[in-house]
Design a protein that fits this description.
The chain is mainly α. The protein has a domain of about 350 residues: Amino acid/polyamine transporter I (Up-down Bundle), CATH 1.20.1740. The chain is built from 23 helices and two strands. Strands 1-2 form a two-stranded antiparallel sheet. A hairpin with a 2-residue loop joins strand 1 and strand 2. Helix 5 packs across helix 7, helix 14 runs antiparallel to helix 15 and helix 17 runs antiparallel to helix 19. Its main location: membrane. Keywords: Membrane, Transmembrane, Transmembrane helix. GO terms for molecular function: transmembrane transporter activity. It is found in: Membrane.
């Protein structure tokens, strides 16, 4: 086995990995779930989600262009704050990506359940997959695995070919639905209880849990595949920013089309429920050929996203091995195909665990969204810290006004975690703390002095997680809390506390980062900018 990756991805191929990850099952279900949570104000939720994603992606782009390594998203925190914080951040990030693989397969099978065949309708009942549906989803996960098995070039060619199709189908669907039936009053709320029937809290919760964060999470894919990018200093910002901007346009079109096409009944937007939202709307308006196209794309779009997330999570596993927190076996790379196959098998097993534990798109999408938010937390902290500790390091991308932008990125991440609502926010934070025994086992060879140093740089993070959980518990009922902090004030308190932790986190960084953790010869990486 080799330890080198192949630099085979150009800027467009890298951007297509981001787009393919973003336009998966999120476009099939995101508009419906956002509307049920926020009503017509779901449009604001998508705009706010895109803005937050761009701010956080800007942090990641500066870091990724500085260190274009495999699994970059799981390695920055390890560089700036040591192995304990690095492992916690990497664990949340890996969970948020590898769990997307089965959710894309579930989305395809859920759309299949609307086919006019008895065997298809038996695959999905009451929001969860049946045993036959699970079997079909399991087969799709194997397909995603095989698309990655024979190398990054094979994967990139497949992904580039289908991404153009994946862009055309959603855009065409949105335009045709609006042309067939569009009730402008739905968008203003004139006939449906107002533009913001569930209040501002509904908009904010929609951003955090309705698939919006889940959809934009795909910007991580170009960063995790940066170790296989040609000219990463130019390719990475092009891929990350370009994919977020393009996906935003597509999702806004889809949300407007959904809001304008449906007529909510007495129960309002929250009462609407479709197993295959856009396909069922197309059939209702006699756009049968569009429905057929949608059923086909229900395989293609999630499959492209599933294969991309499997590729991304595999590089994350490789990155965690390079961090020293996973066994060396997972760092082996196939000498001919340049794929970390042991890591690929490992992620296949993890995907099956998630598939059989969470049997519905909506259930798993909410869990992924919160894990995703936790994974974002370290990006601004690491970027801010490196401005001080590695001030002279070449930065192909340099975020303007970093102190302000970085603080905003951390504040937004904290607010997203709070908007996810109690008890989900607390449950995921508890899951992160349960990773500690695994960390201690992986680092069992470390000396007491090494453990003490890692803990010193991690105290702020270990205090931050229960603090946000406590605020979520005590916060306003609009976000699932007990009402001890009134609505409005709770948002101010979370924002203020997050800024204090941001300062503490930056000051807790290691004084002299060990660049050998990132500039590894066995990644096969040239110098930055060459």
């Amino acid at each position: 086995m080799s330890s080198r990756l192949n630099r085979a991805l150009g800027p467009w191929q890298l951007m297509f990995t981001g787009l393919s990850a973003m336009i998966g099952s999120g476009w099939l279900f995101g508009a419906e779930r956002a509307a049920s949570t926020a009503g017509p104000a779901a449009i604001l939720a998508w705009l706010l989600g895109a803005f937050i994603a761009l701010v956080i992606a800007a942090m990641a782009t500066e870091l990724g262009s500085m260190f274009p390594v495999a699994g970059g998203m799981v390695r920055y925190a390890n560089l700036t704050h040591g192995p304990l914080v690095g492992f916690m951040a990497a664990g949340a990030n890996w969970l948020s990506i590898v769990s997307v693989v089965p959710v894309e397969a579930e989305a395809s099978v859920q759309y299949m359940s609307s086919w006019p065949f008895s065997w298809a309708r038996g695959m999905y009942h009451d929001g969860v997959l049946s045993p036959s549906g699970l079997a079909a989803a399991a087969v799709l996960v194997v397909v995603y695995f095989l698309l990655n098995f024979w190398g990054v070039r094979f994967f990139a060619r497949f992904n580039s070919a289908i991404t153009v199709f994946k862009l055309i189908v959603p855009a065409t669907t949105a335009v045709l639905l609006m042309a067939s039936s569009f009730h402008g009053g739905n968008l203003t709320g004139a006939e449906t209880g107002g533009f913001m029937p569930y209040g501002l809290s509904g908009v904010l919760t929609a951003v955090a849990t309705s698939g919006i964060v889940f959809a934009f999470n795909g910007f991580q894919s170009p960063l995790n595949l940066a170790g296989e990018a040609r000219n990463p200093g130019r390719s990475i910002p092009f891929a990350v920013i370009g994919s977020v901007a393009t996906a935003t346009v597509i999702y806004l079109l889809l949300q407007c089309a959904y809001l304008g096409a449906v007529r909510p009944g007495a129960g309002g937007w929250a009462a609407l429920s479709f197993s295959s939202p856009f396909a069922q709307l197309a059939i209702a308006f006699n756009l049968n050929w569009v429905a057929v196209l949608l059923y086909f794309d229900a395989f293609l779009a999630p499959s492209g996203a599933g294969a991309t997330h499997l590729a991304s999570s595999t590089r994350m596993t490789l990155g965690m091995q390079r961090n020293g927190t996973l066994p060396d076996l997972l760092g082996a790379i196939h000498p001919e195909y340049g794929v970390p196959r042991p890591a690929l098998w490992f992620n296949l097993g993890a995907a099956y665990i998630f598939l059989f534990c969470f049997r519905g798109w909506g259930i798993l999408a909410a869990v992924i969204s919160v894990c995703t938010v936790i994974s974002y937390l370290m990006l601004p902290i690491s970027a801010l810290a490196l401005r001080g500790t590695l001030a002279d390091r070449p930065r192909p991308v340099r975020v303007p006004v970093m102190r302000v932008t970085g603080a905003l990125a951390f504040m937004f991440s904290s607010l997203l975690l709070y908007w996810a609502r109690w008890p989900l926010s607390g449950d995921i934070i508890l899951l992160m703390l349960l990773l500690l025994p695994l960390y201690l086992w992986c680092r069992r060879q470390d000396s007491w002095a090494q453990h003490r140093a890692a803990a010193r740089h991690a105290i702020w993070f270990m205090a931050y997680l229960p603090t946000i959980a406590a605020l979520s518990y005590a916060g306003s009922p609009q976000f699932g809390g007990h009402g001890w902090i009134p609505y409005g004030w709770d948002l101010i308190v979370v924002a203020g506390v997050s800024l204090l932790f941001c300062v503490w986190g930056v000051r807790s960084a290691v004084a002299t980062p060990d660049l050998l953790l990132m500039d590894e010869a066995d990644d096969g990486l040239p110098d930055i900018g060459h």
